[in-house]
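Appendix B. One record, verbatim.
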Amino acid sequence: MAAALPDAADVVIVGGGVMGASIAFHLAEAGVERVLLLERNQLGSGSTSKAAGGVRANFSDELNIALGARSLEAFARFGERPGQEIDLHRVGYLFLLETGDQLELFRESTRLQNAAGQPTRMIDVDEAVRLAPIVAPDGLAGACFSPADGHCTPESVVLGYATAARRLGATLVTGCEVLGIEADDNSIRAVRTSRGDVRTRTVICAAGAWSAELAAPLGVDLPVTPLRRQIVVTEAIPDLPQSMPMTIDFSSTFYFHREGPGLLVGMSDPDEEPGFRLDRTETWLPRLTAAMERRAPSLLDVGLTGGWAGLYEVTPDHNALIGEADGVSRFLYATGFSGHGFLQGPAVGEIIRDLYLGREPFVDVSPLDARRFRYDGRRSEWNVV
């Protein structure tokens, strides 16, 4: 039976993907009463369900490393807290590198990851091919391998957080579209929805690609742009190693990891125009085929069983927006993760909980405040797929 929409809530979370579900769980676990999550479709039906499922701490920015590492710890314990099997495979991330500049970038990021306790290491081409035997070594200069990383099932993560949040007293309402946020005297008063109004003084935006339009009427600028990304799944591939890592050709962004007996394969498309399109197209396939021919030619003989399209929520510097607005009380946000939202979801749920409660988070996220773009305070992150 669908949950009834309450008349009032202490905090309303907009968005029922991994970010919203994680926030709901962490707030409810901390004893926050009347937590309400609103999702216009089904839980996890947006970007989360279309994610490749990679989880990693292999980044070039210390803050992203911290968010990834904290989340890896949570994913490893997910069966106990919140209590859900997520099919976690810690097979590692393997970045394939072609140039001296790329090697130097990853040497530096490896030093940062090692300083944070991550077992990332630079490896030679021979070891990279041993880890991922379908890789063609021609043109490679080396690789970076982070063995603690891997992939898991995004829908299961959402289910685990949502089930535990409900058990702890949170209300999660699906099929309920947020139409607007009422505010006066720079204070939030209510949330208008397709099923009625909810009185509240706090809204948390976890609306992903739809965040900008939610925040704009409040005078809050969340520079999030939707961008379609597509994924295909191959037929079964004989003798595919169970331990083959999530493998990324850094120059082309062509990536793959095991998906059952075959592979999940994706790649960015620099010609993709921003927008909310979710239809599958073939316009990106020639570029994907060229990348396969160069880096994993045996895949050209493997058929496809399906695929899907989803939305990245991209910011100008490909780093997240996490914080609380200064022009209206209280509007918090966790959005704009630019492809890293699923893997950072557990850590960010903790952080938003602490920001709401006035606690000191485990890491300083003030550099990810959306106001950084007012002063051209863009952040650098090289390990972007």
